[in-house]
Amino acid sequence: MPASDGASILRPRLPMDRDLGAAPCGFRGRILGIRPIASAGLTAEEMERRLLELGFVEGAAVEILHQGLFGRDPIAVRVEATTIALRRSEAAAILVGPRD
Amino acid sequence: MNDQSIAQRRFHIALVGNPNCGKTALFNALTGSHQHVANYPGVTVERKEGSVTTETGRRVQLLDLPGTYSLRARSPDEVVTRDVVLGRQAGVAPPDLLVCVADATNLRLGLRLALELKRLDRPVVLVLNMFDIAKHRGMEIDTGQLAARLGMPVVTAIAVRRGGTAALLAAIDRLAEAALPPLPSSASPTWEPPDATGIRRLQQEADRLLEAAVRTPDRRDPLTRRLDAVLLQPVAGLAILLAVLFLMFQAVFAWAAPAMEAIDAGFQALGAMIGATLPQTGALGLLRSFLQDGLIAGVGSVLVFLPQILILFMFILLLEDFGYMARAAFLMDRIMGGAGLHGRAFIPLLSSFACAIPGIMATRVIDSRRDRLATILVAPLMTCSARIPVYTLIIGAFIPDRPVGSGAWSWIGLQGLVMFGLYAAGIVSALGMSFVFKRLLWRRTPSEPFMLELPDYKLPRPRNILLGLWQRAKAFLRRAGTIILSMMVLIWFLSSVPRPPEGATEPAIEYSLAYGIGRAVEPILAPIGFNWQIGVALIPGMAAREVAVASLGTVYAVEDAEEHAGQLGQALASKWSLATALAFLAWYIFAPQCVATLGVIRRETGSLRWMWFSFGYMLALAYLAAFLTFQTARYLGAG
């Protein structure tokens, strides 16, 4: 059965656990962590530092406000009181869960 | 320290802050017109410096540093900020006081920067800028609590209001009194860039500070929310961006016309006055020719474009101040990405519409070398304002001034439409070439991430716009007064010397040195429909593109010395075929850069190879485009 196959592989801890890159426009949640993803020619460590510098820190409330026309990319994310534009491939490093 | 030595030694302050924190507005408010812009030695980062006198009469030297989120510098701009702050920048006095500017409406990232600065053990004062907007939005900021927890003075400021910097100036006075003599500079070498854990810890500390001292109503700025709902709507947003660009070019073309006519008339009157006072022949005749045909006609034909350049810059500055430029980058990232460019390249490329030099310098916001190089290579393809003179002249002479449509569409003129088409051709070729470069030169290197803050919209402040315009106008006039003027004198010399013999039957120019040069290059230019006069004009056009027009003016003015009142446009319309005119336009879409642009490319890429590469590829494209245009137009019967 497909359902039991799915249960055997690694699943997110919570139903709403996912990365911000895959979240739909309008998504509201909280940052659980930054996972190491080397993206766009940057090392995972550098990627993490850049995201942190823009305020993507554990516990911060996030909301996807807007997305682009082509491939729903890039996205405009509200991080606390700041709005940051980034690509979905970069947002994939940000793990998010529900607000409360 | 006694009073005398305080007066002798200037107090140095550096302004540090996030991008979009209103730092430049604060700098403008503090220094007013007492500021000048230069470069840091060895790099092309803009060095904005100014001075201010405090209440107690103390002269303070202010340095506006490039915006940054952290001292962990990645781009050349941020390196300068870091090095000045650490007191390592050559040629810059280590600052006696760091003024950390933060947007009061958006303190989170600003507070982290303040914490980062605090660890340097240098005097820091935190300025909560745009405090009026924060209050208006219902934010409550306990500055006493912030100051106590941060361990640094905290003052509020409203950069855009008269007297809005009083608290900051008073704090500077107090600190200047206390801080002299300066702290030992041994603190700087121990600095290490923070790692992920360090940044995380600082941000969490900043978040705790916010929690304790700031109460924010849980809603976004309503104006920004409503505007973004439309301006960032996937389809409508792109349509509006296009409309904004279209309006910008219509404005450049239509609004500038009265001012341009006035300038033109002024120079013609001046020329006529000189023509009436000096004789036609003899040594004074040569002087008359020099003043009238060389100096006045040459400088006039360039200065006449000042209104258009100012209108274009006004749009760019307004959109930047308003907060729209970051949105434009957001909307364009995917489209530019398709062409192998970074979303951030949008702003440098848009600046290149004014001039490729600030555009190329603006590529420093792009961190990755590959993305930056691709942007530098194609930036000169964007139609810079130096090409406006060329386009305006040819369009004015060859394209009929009539509306394209009727009724609601009658405001769209055919001339404006052709102008828009030329700009569009520049954009399309820039995107096309960067796509080709990506395929040929950097097939394996991935593109840099796109991360950009979208600031809240703010009403642009006339004072900031005017200061920006004044700086641009000064730069243009300086250019017109030096490079362009000297080229004009050279062209006049080539086209006037030697003088025709007594009783000459041909126009005077056919006896000149220019005629010889023009004739020599004519065979190369014949397949693209250029005559020898264009050949003469193209050579100084390399010095600065708009000189091509001035040179044509000089060449034709000298040729038609008797019917001097005739406008250059009319002269061209009677002497060029439509095919030649179109080929000339096509040439100038791609025309090789002016010498100044080539110099900037060399400086910014640090390599002669890239400079010659960009010169060569643009020359090849220009020749090819003019050839195809001329041959096609002739085939269609326009030759």
Instruction: Write out the CATH superfamily name of the domain at 3-215 in chain B.
Output: P-loop containing nucleotide triphosphate hydrolases
Task: Based on Cα principal axes, name the global outline of chain A.
Answer: globular
Range of strand content of chain A? 25-35%
Strand order of the largest sheet of chain A: 1-6-2-3-4-5
What is the string of helix and strand elements of chain A? HEEHEEEHE
CATH architecture of chain A: Roll
CATH class of chain A: Mainly Beta
Uncertain parts of chain B: 1-7, 561-566
List keywords for this structure.
heterodimer, A: 100 residues, alpha+beta, SH3 type barrels, six-stranded antiparallel beta sheet, 6 strands, 30% strand, B: 639 residues, alpha/beta, Rossmann fold, seven-stranded mixed beta sheet, two-stranded antiparallel sheet, 10 strands, 8% strand, disordered N terminus
Descriptive report:
The complex is a heterodimer of chains A (100) and B (639). Chain A has 100 residues and is an alpha+beta fold. Chain A has one domain (14-97): SH3 type barrels. Chain A has helices at residues 2-8, 44-53, 88-91; strands spanning 18-19, 28-34, 61-67, 75-79, 82-86, 94-97. A six-stranded antiparallel beta sheet of chain A has the order 1-6-2-3-4-5. In chain A, a hairpin with a 7-residue loop joins strand 3 and strand 4 (75-79). The longest helix of chain A has 10 residues, at 44-53. Chain A is globular and about 30 Å long. In chain A, 42% of the residues are buried. Mean pLDDT of chain A is 82; it is low at 1-16. Chain B is α/β, with parallel strands linked by helices and 639 residues long. Chain B has a domain at 3-215: P-loop containing nucleotide triphosphate hydrolases (Rossmann fold, 3-Layer(aba) Sandwich), CATH 3.40.50. Helix content of chain B is 60%, strand content 8%. Chain B has 27 helices and ten strands. Chain B has a seven-stranded mixed beta sheet, with helices on both faces. A two-stranded antiparallel ribbon of chain B has the order 7-9. In chain B, a hairpin with a 5-residue loop joins strand 3 (46-53) and strand 4 (59-64). The longest helix of chain B has 35 residues, at 462-496. Chain B is elongated, with a radius of gyration of 28 Å. The termini of chain B are far apart. Mean pLDDT of chain B is 82; it is low at 1-7 and 561-566. The interface between A and B is large, with 40 and 48 residues. Strand 5 (82-86) of chain A pairs antiparallel with strand 10 of chain B.
